[in-house]
Amino acid sequence: MNADDLKRIFPNASADVLSRNTGAAPVVERGSRHEPLEAHEVQAKPGRRFLVRIESIRRRLLDEDNLCEKYHVDLCRYAGIISGDEAGTTKIETSQRKAKKGEQERTLIEIHNL
């Protein structure tokens, strides 16, 4: 997208906005994908079993089906931390607890070898 396109879409855009949003597109390290990881991309040895524990610490507790553990497990798989999330190789446990007063909301992910 060039400056003329941006001016047409956003007629009141400042010069700073125009300068930051024109030019070369950023270089992406690796594009997102849906195919499985290649063997050399996984840090762990194939055939190993994992236990992935995901604990959500929140001010307001969620319904169990809204914890979205699949998202976190897939990120670990894409990062090469675990080799896969198949039922035979990975056991996934989810839990949540209410944050204590002053405690920051967060998600803890623990990965153990079985």
Helix and strand layout, with pairings?
Layout (H helix, E strand, L loop, with lengths): L2 H7 L5 H6 L29 E9 L10 H10 L11 E9 L7 E8 L1
Parallel strand pairs: 1-2
Antiparallel strand pairs: 1-3
Notes on the protein architecture:
The chain is of the alpha+beta class and 114 residues long. The protein has 2 domains: 29 residues, no CATH class; 78 residues, no CATH class. Helices cover 20% and strands 23% of the residues. A 3-stranded mixed sheet has the order 2-1-3, covered by helices on one side. The longest helix has 10 residues. The chain starts with a helix and ends with a strand. The model has no long low-confidence stretch (mean pLDDT 81).
Terminal Cα span: 50 Å
Number of strands: 3
Query: What is the global morphology?
Result: flat
Q: If you compute it from the alpha carbons, what radius of gyration comes out, rounded to the nearest whole angstrom?
A: 21 Å
Structural class: alpha+beta
What strand order characterises the main sheet? 2-1-3
The biggest sheet amounts to: 3 strands, mixed
Strand content: 15-25%
Tally of separate helices: 3
Helix/strand order: HHEHEE
Helix content: 10-25%
Kindly summarize this structure in a few lines.
By secondary structure, the chain is of the alpha+beta class. It has helices spanning 3-9, 15-20, 69-78; strands at residues 50-58, 90-98, 106-113. It starts with a helix and ends with a strand.
Task: Give me some keywords for this one.
114 residues; alpha+beta
